[in-house]
């Protein structure tokens, strides 16, 4: 709750940098670590050699992720009258993609290692029922290339397998899909209580 720390394989501390975040969250990929203050506006991109950059967002941070290239995707409340927005930056802090949602409360985001694709999860209402959605994006197109909706599950996390397949983890089931649509599998575990996933 006070500092960002790294340890080597022998257990020796090699990095200890204070952050001052009240609700710190950490996401890692390769040599990069994204540290952000959930519900606030501040984030930092870190590596062992130093802090690559610090920045603030225009709206409250909901989720963030970094890939092995140092690209960062952020989910925030929207400043344009929408419910949510997702912004992707390259390692030089240049914005390369922005998507607004007027229907979906976006809860999570994932970036592919090659930096060409993105997946988001979110919730909306459909005829009085909670609907969870998984959306897949090609970052060269303005709108999602695929969408999967479910009413019997609340998605809580999303991530990429090394080959580009996407996993959405929910409270009662997990869904595995790919951008081309050749994979779409749902694995239920409704009789169990989800504790975590990796």
Tell me what you see in this structure.
The chain is mainly β and 198 residues long. It is built from no helices and 18 strands. A hairpin with a 5-residue loop joins strand 1 and strand 2 (13-18). 31% of the residues are buried. The mean pLDDT is 94.
Integer-rounded radius of gyration: 17 Å
Structural class comes to: mainly beta
Euclidean distance between termini CA atoms: 23 Å
Strand content: over 45%
The tally of beta strands, per DSSP, is 18
Order of helices and strands: EEEEEEEEEEEEEEEEEE
Biggest beta sheet attributes = 4 strands, antiparallel
Number of helix segments? Answer: 0
Report low-confidence residues grouped into runs of 5 or more.
none
Instruction: Give the % helix.
Output: under 10%
The coarse overall form would be: globular
Overall mean pLDDT score? Answer: 94
Widest beta sheet: strand line-up: 3-4-5-6
Chain-wise SSE layout:
Blueprint (H helix, E strand, L loop, with lengths): L2 E5 L5 E6 L5 E6 L2 E6 L4 E6 L2 E7 L4 E6 L5 E6 L6 E6 L5 E7 L3 E7 L5 E10 L2 E10 L7 E5 L4 E6 L5 E5 L2 E5 L6 E5 L10
Antiparallel strand pairs: 1-2, 3-4, 4-5, 5-6, 7-8, 8-9, 9-10, 11-12, 12-13, 13-14, 15-16, 16-17, 17-18
């Amino acid at each position: 709750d006070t500092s960002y720390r790294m340890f080597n394989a022998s257990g020796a501390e090699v990095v200890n940098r204070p952050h001052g975040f009240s609700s710190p969250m950490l996401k890692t990929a390769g040599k990069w670590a994204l540290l952000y203050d959930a519900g606030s506006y501040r984030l930092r991109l870190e590596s062992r050699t130093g802090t690559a950059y610090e920045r603030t967002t225009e709206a409250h941070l909901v989720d963030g992720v970094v890939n092995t290239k140092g690209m960062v995707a952020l989910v925030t409340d929207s400043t344009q009258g929408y419910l949510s927005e997702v912004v992707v930056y390259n390692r030089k802090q240049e914005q390369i993609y922005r998507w607004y949602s007027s229907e979906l409360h976006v809860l999570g985001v994932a970036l592919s290692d090659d930096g060409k694709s993105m997946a988001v999860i979110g919730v909306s209402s459909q005829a009085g029922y909670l609907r969870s959605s998984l959306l897949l994006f090609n970052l060269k197109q303005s709108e999602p290339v695929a969408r999967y909706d479910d009413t019997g599950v609340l998605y809580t996390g999303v991530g990429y397998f090394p080959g580009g397949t996407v996993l959405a983890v929910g409270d009662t089931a997990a869904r595995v899909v790919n951008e081309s649509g050749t994979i779409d599998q749902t694995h239920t575990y409704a009789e169990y209580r989800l504790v975590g996933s990796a």
